[in-house]
């Protein structure tokens, strides 16, 4: 896997001219929240499968390529496995089926519930990655600032929150780069991070964290100096080089996503009445 794909796997922006790239960031933010609500408002396995299918359609619309998506989802494999096993072992409902003279360890309802939870998490991850793949940190900050601008009347520091969010998103790839450079430098000096006892690995980890933390703090100090030199003042009004425009295309996309969320929340009654009656 190339380093460019590794950098874009979490929180990265993939340049492109797809349909999702051309949408207003406010539409994508509201659409992401809408799809997350639709994914978690129902506990049925059918609704979770539909959420994953819808998230897969969004993944195809991003134009990022299947390798980037495969690598991005593969990074969450342990989290998904742990959530599935915890729900499988600690959630008890229904009677376990009998396999010959022996009784099975888990009931069918528990297995369905664990699969549904894992699928809902997969759909949430895919929707979040679709947002970051098609939206730059600047666009996301402007979208958040526009959506939260009514809170200014309540004296909420919306501008400061937006700036903090943008800086945090920009520092994710910078931290990854610092860690990768530090690991390469320490390996060139003979440090082994994958072998030996736990105490030795912990000591080697200190040789990684201290230089990486120093590099991140150095970049943060340079960024603060650059912002001060450019005249940034917290709380002061700022101009926009490319103002956001909410078009008819954004309205149609947002209405479709809201309609999909409504169907997801009520689908056990309207879409799958036969399945619901059987279960």
* Content of β-strand: under 5%
The helix fraction, in percent, is over 70%
Mean pLDDT comes to: 79
- Strand order within the widest beta sheet: 1-2
Can you characterise this structure?
- By secondary structure, the protein is mostly helical.
- 21% of the residues are buried.
- The chain starts with a helix and ends with a helix.
- It has helices spanning 3-8, 19-22, 25-40, 45-62, 66-74, 77-90, 108-134, 137-148, 158-188, 198-229, 248-270, 273-278, and strands at 98-99, 102-103.
- The chain folds into two domains: 1-135 and 247-279, no CATH class; 137-244, no CATH class.
Write the layout of secondary structure elements.
Blueprint: H1 3-8, H2 19-22, H3 25-40, H4 45-62, H5 66-74, H6 77-90, E1 98-99, E2 102-103, H7 108-134, H8 137-148, H9 158-188, H10 198-229, H11 248-270, H12 273-278
Antiparallel strand pairs: 1-2
Helix pairs in contact: 3-7, 3-8, 3-11, 4-7, 6-7, 8-9, 9-10
Summary tags:
279 residues, mainly alpha, two-stranded antiparallel ribbon, 12 helices, flat, disordered C terminus
